[in-house]
């Protein structure tokens, strides 16, 4: 089913391209938050299973994808700006659930810290609040390519690091997309990466105490950049958090192979459609071999 397309005006400041996938039987709506350098197309695999149960909202940041023509993009926007946009879209589409991917988790957590009344649960995938050695190395190499607007080498870097577990076809799409970005997109990412590499972490821990809804953090078993063990530090800051590790998967989870897609589907739908216990490893209703890891 094709989505309903709309450009949403966010308080007269930004115009955001949105895609609304309606599910006839759905009683809830979920919004998906992109990672860096990505667009709504990155969630093509995720929409396939979420739309069986929920209405699904996708959107491009003002500087990216199909939002670009509607904005001046003269200045970079902050993660706080992205959180502001997300909060507006939550109200506009009357959203119940939220799911973020990779660095989209920063804006998602900042928005959730504002306690949007409509949001009941959230899933944060391929994210860690810590900048470990592999991630810092990746970011520092990326900075030089971003500064030079060298999209081709940046695309190779992404595919050889966080994207190394992707199928070859997806790597080709990834490289083509990253190599063809506009100059302002490289500037946007340079500004953000330059900021976070000088921080101990890229998630403002002090704001997390304001989040009271259940959160599920999903990471790939072989993701050394957002390692499953690193995300466990969040138990010190969140009152109701849960963890799942997808077996034999890297950073891109449901894009990497069919088994990871099936595990991701069952973990996410199981969490969103159940009442999990507090601060634990979440286990879906169906039996999965090594789908979760303590």
TrEMBL record:
Q: Which InterPro entries match?
A: AB_hydrolase_1, AB_hydrolase_fold, Carboxylesterase_BioH
Organism of origin: Pseudomonas taeanensis MS-3
| Pfam families xrefs | Abhydrolase_1
Locate the AB hydrolase-1 domain: which residues? 29-257
SUPFAM superfamilies from the entry? alpha/beta-Hydrolases
According to UniProt, the name of this protein is MFS transporter
Superkingdom of this protein's organism: Bacteria
